[in-house]
Amino acid sequence: MTLSGVARVAFVGSRRIFASHLPSMQSYTPAFSRQVHNPATGEVIANVSCMGGKETKDAISSAFDAFNSWSKLTAAERSKGLRKWYDLLMAHKEELGQLITLEQGKPLKEAVGEVDYGAKFIEFYAEEAKRVYGDIIPATLPDRRIFVLKQPVGVAGAITPWNFPLAMITRKVGPALACGCTVVLKPSEFTPLSALAAAELALQAGIPPGVVNVVMGNAPDIGDALLTSPQVRKITFTGSTAVGKKLMAGAAGTVKKVSLELGGNAPCIVFDDADLNVAVNGALAAKFRNSGQTCVCANRVLVQEGIYEKFADAFSKAVKNLKVGDGFGEGVVQGPLINKAALEKVETFVEDAVSKGAKVLLGGRRHSLGMTFYEPTVLSNVKSEMLVSREEVFGPVAPLLCFKTEEEAIHMANDTNAGLAAYIFTNNLQRTWRVSEALEYGLVGVNEGLISTEVAPFGGVKQSGLGREGSKYGMDEFLEIKYVCLGDMNRK
Ligand code: SIN
Q1: How would you class 318 by CB atoms within 10 Å of its CB: exposed for 0-12, middle for 13-18, buried for 19 or more?
Q2: Strand, coil or helix: what is 383?
Q3: What processes in GO biological process is this protein linked to (predicted)?
Q4: How far is the CA of 416 from the centre of ligand 1 (A)?
């Protein structure tokens, strides 16, 4: 299938999905539509339906109805559907990658990598579907038996971000479907096409209509409908801490299960005893993946004083080689930022740092390509009180902070409300354990800057969120535990 084929599938998908969850309508003609832009060029690449509360309620009803049959399938049957979906995602890897680059801006190689990463969640959960084990607990009375069953929580509302238009969907929908839940998915308004294409491929895989429903458009109306519906029993979200707090408060009204993957402020700690090359390459990967637009991107690079100058020099040289441009361009590794607001945020953070004494070692301004391109930037002499250290910059800016002792590094690293990912670079085994245990973070990379994988638990502590995605632990977020007490076993 060609790129235009995938785009067509996305639109056909949207019509089929609407048709499937809006039974009263033969063909759904939205009252409003919304433009989708290519962030690298500003070009309008599609118009998609702009939906609101009414369509979301219809989608919830559809998911609620489908739950009855989907949850009653055998695990093996659900597993087969998921495996087929994985196969189709992989068969369309190149085109899906092109769609991601087109609507999100990340370089094509990285976008195709995201399809691989995203599809693996579906493959993993196709396998995990068969392993939802219960328990038998030794009873406290001779005539009793105690069983523990795990059952799907029900309809899940999934709200996903633009930075991984596919992988954040599959990381939620995969375990939800594996457990027997059905889903109402709201993708980001900036990147709905990948979601529609993925949903269409789910239908083609034989996953019944109503099991995965996509609603796009007016975020507050869609969010309200999901939060207030008693039929939605679970909210799963990736995005900002501010929105996560609102969802958590909104979910309280109907006491829903909630999992939140929120913002980070990742420290990347380089100790004097680190291998310089490993540290430079690891920090580069941790910082500049997706042009700095991931929740696990290194936000602060803390460097011990003995290696500071050498690291700053080698790191700046490596950053200078990062080619910026349209994600379809040959050799491009840094795409545009998602929109003007993101660009202005990066500018404000850099201006704040420079006004308080930071030195620009490299970059520090908009890129000559215009649009939302920003130069890969390295700042030195950064202090903890600067905006760039306190909050997530979500852009291609690496602030270097100097520290003297291990205790100071741990204190600086933990001095934040966030607690998603942290990275350390050291060749000292005792230090590896000491520091890993002392860091108040959900993920720690040791001598490695890219640590996300479908087989490991992903999630934060403190205000970076609740719950875990990926791995066997990701299943727990979509399951309820039921205790069954069998009494009077000795009755004849
Ligand atoms: C995110 O930025 O939220 C996800 C990053 C990842 O999965 O590695």
Answers
A1: middle
A2: coil
A3: gamma-aminobutyric acid catabolic process
A4: 19
Domain span holding position 172: 9-262+465-481
Angle at 371 between CA 368 and CA 372, to 5 degrees: 95
Instruction: Tell me, in angstroms, the distance from the centre of ligand 1 to residue 295's CA.
Output: 6
What are the DSSP E strand ranges found in 245-316?
257-261, 266-270, 298-304
Ligand 1 site, residue 464, Cβ cutoff 6 A: no
pLDDT at 26 over 80: no
DSSP code for 366: B
- The answer to whether residue 455 is domain-embedded is no
Best of 265, 451, 452 for a ligand 1 pocket test (most atoms within 8 Å of beta carbon)? 452
What's the CA dihedral at 236, 470, 442, 214 to 10 degrees?
-20
CB of 291 shorter than 6 A to ligand 1: no
Q: How far is the CA of 306 from the centre of ligand 1 (A)?
A: 32
Has residue 53 been placed in a domain?
yes
Say if residue 272 is in the same domain as residue 345. yes
List CB contacts of 24: < 8 A, sequence separation 6 or more.
none
Q: Distance between CA atoms of 113 and 99, rounded to whole angstroms?
A: 13
Of the candidates 55, 103, 114, 261, the residue annotated as catalytic is 261
pLDDT tens readout for residues 277-331:
999 999 999 999 999 999 999 999 999 999 999 999 999 999 999 999 999 999 9
Domain total for the chain? 2
With the most atoms of ligand 1 within 8 angstroms of its CB, the residue from 191, 240, 262, 458 to mutate is 458
Does residue 451 belong to any structural domain of this protein? no
User: pTM higher than 0.70 for the full model?
Assistant: yes
Q: 385 catalytic, yes or no?
A: no
What is the chain's Cα-based Rg? 24
With a 6 Å cutoff on the Cβ, whether 294 touches ligand 1 is: yes
